Amino acid sequence: MEILLFFIGAIICYLISAMIHEMGHVACGLFHHWKLYMLVVGPMKLYRETMDSKIKIGIEKNPILWGGVGGTLPTKESEENIKVWGKILLAGPLTSIVFGILMLPVFIVTKNIFVLLLCLMPIAMGAMCIIPMKMKTGLLYNDGTRYNRLQSGGQEGAEERAIFRLIEVSLFGGEEAVYPEEYVEPLLASKDPDFQYYGYYYAYVNAMRQNHKEDAKKQLANMESIRDKVAKAIVDDCKIEK
Predict the structure, then answer these.
(1) I need a surface site. Which of 14, 53, 87, 166 has the fewest CB within 10 A?
(2) How far is C-alpha 101 from the geometric centre of its chain's CA atoms?
């Protein structure tokens, strides 16, 4: 019975730690007047169906996201947005580390094992998310890696900036927006199948919106050729226009 209670308590401590981490991302976005669009901790989520709709409560069906997602989006197009995005990336792990450090004196006073977990888990989570790694942690690179990529020159920096700018075009360009080639090309040139798949997808959307049917078929074939190497969540995100 004690083992079961400890196991349940540890899960609760993890969920609290994940919530603190994701709220760090969200709070930074809200501070810069961005809008919450998704907050996932475990199977529970807050989300908006569109940026203008009300926040809803739901169940996240994709287990890959259960580790935590805190997403905000800009409310207007601006050259400053990508700098804010960099701050948001770092805000989550830094919040985790600060929270864990603040829990240390509480543990020293209480000697409670669960308070110790609330000290160690956030610090470990923050460290794992802020230390740059070449491998992905789930669907994407971790926060520190993405920040480093974003700040760097060369291909990796171009990929991160391109993904962000393409999201901006989706938000503010309207339903028939054509995605600038300068944002699509870095993804097409990527060695990472996930980024490359997005590149083919945006090239496909452009071809469809410009009524270039043959090019659209070519991009669909390119997408299909690497589909098995791409995360399912990314494949599901790239909706094919009918």
Answers:
(1) 53
(2) 25
Tokens of 132: 């740059």
For residues 187 and 195, the answer to whether their CB atoms sit within 8 Å is yes
Say which residues have a Cβ less than 8 Å from residue 72's Cβ, sequence separation at least 6. Answer: 25, 26, 28, 29, 30, 34, 35, 36, 37, 88
Q: How far apart are CA 7 and CA 1, in angstroms?
A: 10
Half-sphere exposure of residue 176: CA atoms within 13 angstroms, side-chain side: 3
Asked if 122 and 24 count as a contact pair (C-beta separation under 8 A), the reply is no
Closest CA to 102 of 126, 67, 86, 71: 126
DSSP-based three-state secondary structure for 44:
strand
Q: What is the pTM of this model?
A: 0.89
Query: Would you say how long the chain is, in residues?
Result: 242
Q: What is the mean pLDDT of each run of 10 residues along the chain (242 residues)?
A: 87 95 97 95 91 91 86 93 96 97 96 95 95 75 92 90 93 88 95 94 95 95 94 85 61
**Domain residue limits, the chain:** 2-146, 162-237
What are the φ and ψ backbone dihedral angles of 176, each rounded to 5 degrees? -105, 20
Name the burial class of residue 104, with classes exposed (0-12), middle (13-18) and buried (19+) by CB atoms within 10 angstroms of its CB.
middle
d(CA 6, CA 110) in angstroms, rounded, equals 17
Cα 242 to Cα 84, 143, 192, 233, 236, distances in angstroms? 35, 35, 27, 20, 15
In a 3-state reduction of DSSP, which class is residue 6?
A: helix
Please state, in angstroms and rounded to a whole number, the distance separating the CA atoms of residues 139 and 161: 18
Residue the block writes with tokens 């080639």: 181
